[in-house]
Design a protein that fits this description.
mainly alpha, 87 residues, single chain, elongated
Length: 87
């Protein structure tokens, strides 16, 4: 009986890891798309730009294992746009 419970616990942990990891990837792609949208439009919403930059740092920025060069460029471009808005 304990082997069955142990096996079910391992399966539950693996399933939880899989679903959390897939959600993480979806969030990362969502914020990349939001960054591209903000760069392409003439949006003057500084709050949205700051939020997108913060989330890009969180999901795929310098604190992750493999920093993404595309994301670093997006953050740099969003920072330039934010500077133009605040001046």
């Amino acid at each position: 009986m304990s082997y069955v419970v142990f096996g079910l616990a391992i399966i539950a942990i693996a399933a939880a890891w899989y679903f959390l990891h897939s959600d993480f990837d979806k969030q990362k792609e969502k914020y990349k798309e939001a960054a591209y949208t903000l760069l392409e439009t003439e949006s003057r919403d500084a709050k949205a730009i700051k939020h997108t930059m913060k989330c890009l740092h969180l999901y795929c920025g310098r604190r992750t294992k493999e920093p993404d060069a595309e994301v670093a460029e997006l953050i740099r471009e969003l920072g330039k746009k934010l500077d133009r808005l605040t001046v």
